[in-house]
Amino acid sequence: MNYQWYPGHMTKARRMMEENIKLIDLVIEVVDARIPMSSRNPDIDTLARNKSRIILLNKSDLSDESKNAEWIDYFTKKNFYVLKINARSGAGIKQVNPTIALACQEKIERDKKKGIQNRPVRAMVVGIPNVGKSTFINSFAGKACAKTGNKPGVTKGKQWIRLNKNVELLDTPGILWPKFDNQEVGKRLAMIGSMNDEILNLDELALDTVKFVLEEYPGKLAERYQINEEQEALRVLEEIASRRGCLKHGAMVDYEKAAGIILDDFRSGRIGRITLETPDAQ
After folding, report:
1. How many angstroms separate the CA atoms of 131 and 90, rounded?
2. Taking Cα atoms as reference points, which of 149, 133, 144 lies closest to residue 32?
3. Could you read off the pLDDT of 11-56 as tens digits, one per residue?
4. Measured distance CA(231)–CA(216) in Å, rounded
5. N or C: which terminus of the chain has fewer CB atoms within 10 Å of its end residue's CB?
6. DSSP annotation of 30
7. Which of 111, 133, 167, 150 is nearest to 44 (CA)?
């Protein structure tokens, strides 16, 4: 399967970020903790150079906890400030403000030397679609602030959301990502549900998911579905289908229905906490 994805208004969003980045002290990048590298926009590092940076590993409740620690170590060594969060539940959100203060400590000290007192840190939140950027903003800013921030017309009059006396957030959409050359990146995005299922071959995607879990997380499929893992991936998928009643007339496997169940269980974390890529592979 060839994975391709071209979200609209990429050029407009990129131009907006290029125009606004000079007003910014800090770039907060939201990524999916299950695919921290594949869910990063490769253009952000260029656009946000010379700015303080925070990476938020969102949906960290769905990712492998040991791999979370590896990714935090990886990004920290590259001079990012890193937090794992769950924007939906609010876990880790309280750590964001102290981390902003830490990331912008030099800037705050420079302001003080210039006699500038109490100017808030100006931050921009970026991230590709479906990493939970909007959920984070709602959780971090509070619903009243986010409601104002979600109004259109940002490009005409830039709107600053005052989060507290120390932080202002520029209300601008995160930059999107036009395409990827590495099909493995596309497959990982598809596996976690960040691409439109209607353009995918879900049978093939579910089989790829089964193969990955069998290889990297042995025992999880057996535990979830009470099946025998000591067989090839297609047979495992067919056994899962049988266990879940995904059969057509004449006891034929309903691959489409089985694929839907497997992918839904995988994406929701019911198969277990799974991370699809590791820092040592980068």
Report:
1. 15
2. 133
3. 777 787 888 888 899 999 999 999 999 999 888 888 898 899 999 9
4. 15
5. C
6. E
7. 133
Strand 167-170 versus strand 160-162 pairing type: antiparallel
- Give Cα 19 distance to the centre of its chain: 25
Q: Say if residues 50 and 75 touch (Cβ distance below 8 Å).
A: no
Cβ-Cβ contacts under 8 Å for 59 (sequence gap 6 or more): 32, 33, 34, 86, 87, 88, 131, 132
Pairwise CA distance, residues 12 & 89, whole Å: 32
Report the alpha-carbon distance of residue 90 to residue 103 in Å, rounded. 21
Q: How far is CA 251 from CA 38, 197, 241, 254, in A?
A: 39, 26, 11, 9
Q: Are 100 and 163 in contact (CB under 8 A)?
A: no
**This prediction's pTM:** 0.89
Q: Which domains does the chain have, with CATH numbers?
A: 10-170 (3.40.50.300), 201-281 (1.10.1580.10)
- Residue length of the chain: 282
What are the tokens at 137? 């903003």
96-103 and 105-113 helices, crossing angle to 10°: 60
Residue-wise pLDDT for 53-82, tens only, equals 999 999 999 999 999 999 999 999 999 999
Q: Which of 67, 100, 66, 64 is nearest to 82 (CA)?
A: 100
What would the two tokens of residue 144 be?
A: 């009243």
